[in-house]
């Protein structure tokens, strides 16, 4: 922990990179844990472009439920600690793979959502945005152009949003330290963000419950994000 504090205080430009593990303590299951959610909705049936094409009703039902349950979810100590660090200028921003909006709810300002957001839905054909309530209109709601309305999140088999990805790459290139929180670091191309910081000669701190492929190149703080990050923020005096 002391080494991590030193690294964060001496970094010229530090960013955080977060994944589903930062939100599990808020009650949102990640992809890897054994949550009942993935028995009811297998990941391959709700997180891929193919799933949307083959069974849109099943696919959309999953997101309809997510929109409702995420509305009442609260940020946890890990999100709050990251917001405290940003406010104190210790981290310059957060690149997140999450779609739950909890970093913003915790008060973080510079949040780059590279996998989209559950805040809105859009037409799969023409891209027109709608409010999430549009999903409640029909089993498979459609745009004026005839396209299916779908959540504005990145599915397996789809490209990342160009603007967000560009900003994330630029942030990573400028950074000499990346604080990874709650990510298995196996999803590409998102995992190129911490990879890029290391490639450019920077350092990494990884806060994760389980091993990741970048552990041997980082300072690893093994355990729960809420406890570790809140302690880190306290030690940083923020
Ligand atoms: P992942 O592959 O599910 O990995 C999560 C990692 O977090 C695992 O290595 C766990 O060991 C670790 N972890 C879980 N809980 C904790 C905790 N409390 N403290 C510390 N570590 C913990 O998730 P990634 O984000 O790496 O994978 C990328 C996918 C998952 C992205 O596309 C996300 O959009 C997607 N996802 C997002 C959410 C969300 O928005 N909250 C939920 C589920 C999946």
From TrEMBL:
Under the heading Pfam families, the entry gives: SIR2
What does the sequence similarity comment in the record state about its family? Belongs to the sirtuin family. Class U subfamily.
Listed binding positions for NAD(+) are 20, 24, 31-32, 97, 99-100, 115, 183-184, 208, 225
User: Where, per UniProt, does this protein localize?
Assistant: Cytoplasm
- Which sites bind nicotinamide? 31, 99-100
E.C. code: 2.3.1.286
According to the entry, every stretch annotated as the Deacetylase sirtuin-type domain falls at 1-238
Q: Which NCBIfam families match?
A: PRK00481.1-3 (NF001753)
Residues the record marks as active site: 115 (proton acceptor)
Q: Which organism is it from?
A: Carboxydothermus hydrogenoformans (strain ATCC BAA-161 / DSM 6008 / Z-2901)
Q: Name one GO cellular component term.
A: cytoplasm
Molecular function terms, GO-annotated? histone deacetylase activity, NAD-dependent; NAD+ binding; zinc ion binding
UniProt catalytic activity: N(6)-acetyl-L-lysyl-[protein] + NAD(+) + H2O = 2''-O-acetyl-ADP-D-ribose + nicotinamide + L-lysyl-[protein]
Physiological role: NAD-dependent protein deacetylase which modulates the activities of several enzymes which are inactive in their acetylated form.
Per UniProt, the keywords (alphabetical) are: Cytoplasm, Metal-binding, NAD, Transferase, Zinc
PROSITE patterns per UniProt? SIRTUIN
Q: Which cofactors is this protein said to need?
A: Zn(2+)
Q: What is this protein called?
A: NAD-dependent protein deacetylase
What residue ranges are annotated as transmembrane?
A: none
What the entry lists under InterPro entries is as follows: DHS-like_NAD/FAD-binding_dom (IPR029035), NAD-dep_sirtuin_deacylases (IPR050134), Sirtuin (IPR003000), Sirtuin_cat_small_dom_sf (IPR026591), Sirtuin_class_U (IPR028628), Ssirtuin_cat_dom (IPR026590)
Return the cofactor note field: Binds 1 zinc ion per subunit.
According to the UniProt entry, the coiled-coil residues are none
